[in-house]
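Q: Structure tokens for this one, please.
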Amino acid sequence: MELETEGGMYSGIAEESDIIEAFQDDEKRGEFIILSKSEQVYIQAAGEGFGPYTLEYRDGDEDHHFQCTKELSKSDVQSAFIGYLKGDSSWKSNLQWKPLDTSENSEKPWWKFW
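A: Here is the predicted structure, written as tokens:
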């Protein structure tokens, strides 16, 4: 999996230590972080400092793009990223999700346009 951040941190073969480092350094991470299996399969978060953070995941096409129904703390998002990396699906089952509204009429923060 690949790890990338707004701040330019990048790992072509991400490890748990890369995720921990990214979440420890708010300035280097920037406002978003993405852990991807492929272009259309990933988990991503946006936020700053200790939070709140918005968490999303995509499992293929836009019909399989979901957003967590509540904002999360930085530690909750870090745990979700580590679970995703390890293939542990509890990160998904422990949170509530809704389909991401991708209609042109929905108001989106800038980071939704990646």
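A few notes: The longest strand covers residues 32-38. The first helix runs from residue 16 to 24.
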